Amino acid sequence: MSTIGQPERATQDRVIALFRDELGYRYLGDWSDRDGNSNVEESLLSAFLTKSGYSPEQIGAALYRLRTEADNGSRSLYQNNQKVYELLRYGVDVKVEAGKVTDKVRLINWANPGANDFAIAEEVTLRGGRERRPDLVLYVNGIAVGVIELKNSRVSMSEGIRQSLSNQQPEFNAGFFSTVQFLFAGNDSEGLQYGTVGTQEKYFLKWKEDEQDNSRFKLDKYLLKLCAKDRLIELMHDFVLFDGGVKKLPRVHQYFGIKAAQEHVRARKGGIIWHTQGSGKSIVMVLLAKWILENNPNARVAIITDRDELDKQIERVFSEAGESIERTGSGRELLRLLGQARPRLLCSLVHKFGKKDVDDFDAFIKQLEGEPSRTVGEVFVFVDECHRTQGGKLHRVMKAIMPNAVFIGFTGTPLLKKDRATSLEVFGGYIHTYKFSEAVEDEVVLDLVYEARDIDQRLGSQDRIDAWFDAKTRGLNDWQKDELKKKWGTMQTLLSSRSRMEKVVSDILFDFSVRPRLSNDRGNAILVASSIFEACKYFTLFQKTPLKGKCALVTSYNPQTQDVTKEETGANTETDKQFIYNTYIELLGDVEAAGGRSKTEAYEERAKSLFAREPANMKLLVVVDKLLTGFDAPPCTYLYIDKSMQDHGLFQAICRTNRLDGEDKDFGFIVDYKDLFKKVEKAIAVYTSELDNSAGGTDPEILIHDRLEKGSQRLDEALEALALLCEPVEPPKGELEHIHYFCGNTEIPTDLQEREPQRATLYKATASLVRAYANIADELEAAGYGPADIARIKQRLEHFVNLREIVRKASGESLDLKAYEADMRHLIDTYIEADEPRKISPFDGMGLLELIVKTGIANAIASQLGGLKGDKNAIAETIENNVRRKIIKEHLNDPAFFEKMSALLDEIIAARKARAVEYEEYLKRIAELAKKVEAGQGEDTPAALDTPGKRALYSNLNQDEGLALRIDEAVKAKRPDGWRGVEPREKVIKMALYDILKDFGEVERIFLIIEAQREY
Question: Full-prediction pTM beyond 0.90?
C-alpha cells in the first residue's frame, strides 16, 4: 500500500512513538475529552517536587505562586511568560512560617536533566476561550513547555505556525501559553520550524545540524535534536532571551557559536567569532556574557567597541535583556572599575586606550607591559568589530595593559590577510564562523543586488573656463595659481559637481517614484556622500524636492561658532566651512536639546528612530561615515554610494540594506555612482583574493549579484512557481475550474477553509511576480528578453493578476494591497494600454454582499464580477462563496440565526443545481438571502432589539423578546471590566445568567453567545 500523501494522523502517531521510544518521554494519552487540561498539571508537578524532597507546605506555596504568576489577568501574555520563566529558571522563594528563612523550591532540575519528568500528551483540548486543540504538548514536571502543531505533507507547515499564533490570542487560549517556551510546526515534506511565545510567522526558525544525515524525515531528525532531554533543558536554561518586549530563542549558528565559545572560556583561551553582518552578534554577546558570569563567580566581562553608536547599542541590548551593565566614559575609567570587585559587567569605547603621537610604538608597548593595570577577578574582554582600530595597534595596547585578560573578538566582516596577523596575535584563532553565504542560504539576511550607474560629466567651453579662471585669479603669481589648481583638482570637477549632484538627486527621486518599497512607503534609503560638505550640498538639494521633511543629514559634524570665526572673506560668498555651518544651523533651528543631549544629537536620534520605525516619514538619510556600521534599520532597502570606499568599510556599508523586513523585501539594493566594483562574468567579487580563508568551512567570498541578471532569474522563477501552482487545475482550465481548485464546493462549508493554503500561496506568488516584473520592466530587453518573450511575459502577468482577483472575489477574501499598490500603479501607468475611458465605481473596496445590499445584484455583478465574462455558474458560485463565508464568520455571534441562513443557502444552491429555478429567479432569491446575511437579522425582528447582542439572544432563546432583554440588562449591569479570558470575572457573568436561566447547560450555551458580542 502506498504511503504517499498520508494523513496527518499517521505523522502524529509516528512522532508520538519517536518521543516515547527514542527520546524517553512518558506518553500521557489523548486528552481531547479530558476535563481540566492545564499548562500546570498540579498532580504531576507535586509528585516531582515530593520526589525532590520538598514538604507539602513548600509545594503548596510554590504551586500557588506559579499559578498566580501564570494566570495574572492584568498583564500581557509576554509579561506573564517572563515572570513564569524567572520562576522556572531561578526557583520559587517560599516561606511557610513567619520567622523562618526563605526556602528556594526548584521547579526544574537544571543540573541533572534526566532527573526531570518528561511527558507528552496529544489532542490537548484547551477550554476557557474558544475551544482549541493543539496536536501535541510537551510537559516537564507537569509544566507545559512545548506545543507541536503537525500538518500532512501536502499542507504547508505555515498553517501550523498560524494556528499557534491564533491560539495565543486573548479570545482563544492565551492563558495556556504563559508557561510555554517552545512552539514547533512541521510536516513530512518541509521539516520543522521553531519559535516561542509571540514569535511572528516570518521569524520562525529552522535548525541545521549533521546535514549529511539524510536517513529519515527532517521533521523527525530535528525533533530528536531539539527535544532530546539534555538539549531541551540546556536551551531553556542558557538560550532564552527576553529582549525589550520580544522573547527570543537562538538561531542555530548562535547556539553553536556560544557552545564553541564556552569551551574556549573554560580553557581561558581567546579567539574570534566571525558572524556575518546582521546575523545577531549582540545576542551572542548577551548570552555568552550571562553564561560566563553565572558559571564563574570570579569572572568580569568588559565589552569594548570602537564607535559611540555601537557602545550605546550594546548597553541597550543588555539593559533590555534584564542585565545590569555599567557604561564607562573612557578606557581609564574602565580600568579603574576593573580594579574593584564591582560591577561585574561593563562596556566602554576603545579609543581612550591609545596614546597619540607615539614615535616608537613597540617601545610604548614594552613600557605598558612593564606597568600592567591591576584588575580584580578573571577578566574576559569582548571586542566588537575586532578587525578595525588602526591595524590592531589599540588591541595590542589593551593586551599590554591587561595581560591576564582573555580577549574574544567579534566581527561581521571577513578578515583580510593583512589584518590576520595582528588579529590572531591579539585574539587567537577562530572560535566559530558564520559567513555571508550561509546567512543568505538560511534566510537570516537578504542577498545583495548591485547596479553601477554612470553620471556623465563633460567639460563645456575650455576657452570660457580659462577666461573665468584668469579673471578670478588676477593678482596671483604662477606658483599661487598652480597651488589653487592642485587644491581643487581639475576645473571639470569644479564646474560639473553641482550639475552632477543634481543628476544624482534626480536619479534617486526617480527611484522613489517607481522602485518597489521606495515608492510604496515601506522602505527607505541611505545616500553615502564623500565629504561633510557634499553631504550638506545633497541635503540642501533634496530640500527642494518632494523629500523635503522626509530627508535627514547625519554626519560627525556639530556646529560650533569657532568653526566660522575666521572664514569670512567679505566677498558675499560662503566658504565650505560657512556653508556646512549655515546648513546645520538652519536644520537645527526648530530642534530642542533634551535629556543631556546636544541639539545635533537630539536631531540625529529622532531621524534614526523615524528611519528605523516609520519609513514613510523618513525616506532618506544622507551620511558620510556615521550609521554605516552598527546601525540596524530593517526598512532600509537601497544604499546609494557616491564615495570612494573599500574593504571592510564598503562591506559593512552595503550590509545596512540586507536586514529582513517582510515578504516584499527580497534583496538589499546597492546603487554605485563611483564604480567601486569591477564586474566579473556572473557576479562581482569583493576583495576575494585578499580574504583570509584560514577559518575553513564555507568559502568566505561575498558575491553581489548584478541587478538585471538576478532580476531576470527572479522573474522566470516567479512565472514558473505560478505555473506549477496552477498545474493541478482540471481542463479546460477556465475560470470555473480555477474557482473549484482554489475555493472548492460552495455546498460544503469546510471547502473554503481547506483550500486556504492554495489561495494564500496564489496571492503571495502573484505579489512576488508583480514585484519581480516591476523591478526590471523598463529593461526587459537589456535583461536578455526578445520581443516574443516580452509579449509572453506581459500576457502571463495579466493572466495571473486577473486570476488572483477572480479567486479573491470568489472566496470573499480581501487582500491588503498596500505593499503592492505602487508596483501595480507603475505597471498600469507604464505598460497597460487602456481600450477606452471607464468610470471607476464609487463602491471600490466594498465587499460583494455589502455591494448587493447598496446597489442591487445586477450592479454588483457588473462592477465586481464583470471579469467572469458571463459565466453564470462561476458568478453563482462566487456569490454563494461570499454568503457562505459571511455565515461561517458570523456563526458564533448568533448561531440560531446563521444556522437558519445556512440551511436557506443550501436550499437555494440545491435548487440551482437541480435547475429548479431560472437564473433570474435564482439571482432574486440569492440577493434576498445576501441582504439578510449582511444585515445579520430577519425582517420580523422586534424594534426593541436594537443591538446585535439583543438580537443574538432573541434568536437563540426561542425568540423570547422579554427573556432576551432581561439577560441583556443583567449582563450589562454585572459584567466586570476585562472579563474575557479571566475565569473569576467570567463566573460573575455566569452567575447572573444562572439567576435567570436556572440551568447550567443553558448558562454555558448562552455565555458563548455573549462572549462573541463586542457590546458586552
Answer: no
